[in-house]
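2024-03-11 09:14:02 DEBUG pipeline.ingest accepted 1 chain
2024-03-11 09:14:02 DEBUG pipeline.ingest length=66
2024-03-11 09:14:03 DEBUG pipeline.predict start
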Amino acid sequence: MSDKNRELQSVNCFDCRHFFITHEPALPYGCRAMGFKSRELPCAVVLRSSDALCLLLQPKDKPAKP
């Protein structure tokens, strides 16, 4: 496994509050913090274009257990 793939696994868009599903077949994933939609997960796009991990990752609030 390459270093970039290993780094990508440490950032998960599905756990971020800025990530959303667009329901557009051509651009299914989006990032509200960076304001874009893409075919790939936003964390992969950021890693490929800037060669750095996403710095805007904010974990989602977990619901309180009763």
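2024-03-11 09:14:41 DEBUG pipeline.report The beta strands are 19-21, 29-31, 36-38.
2024-03-11 09:14:41 DEBUG pipeline.predict end
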